[in-house]
Amino acid sequence: MKTEILTSGMHCNGCENRMVKALKGLEDIKDAKADAKTGKVVIKHSKEETITEAKTLIGEIGFEVLST
User: Could you read off the pLDDT of 43-59 as tens digits, one per residue?
Assistant: First the structure.
């Protein structure tokens, strides 16, 4: 599955890298891409529950989830 999450709070490449590194640390996430300009985060995963985990993690590392 591929899911797009709209976030706020990313301002630079460092933010993108922090987001991707954190998300790839979740067991089910096979790939993650983040774009600071659009606020979009795209993750590839195989379980629906992973979305909830990813959204929680995004908040824990200092960004806000706007929508999925």
Answer: 999 999 999 999 999 99
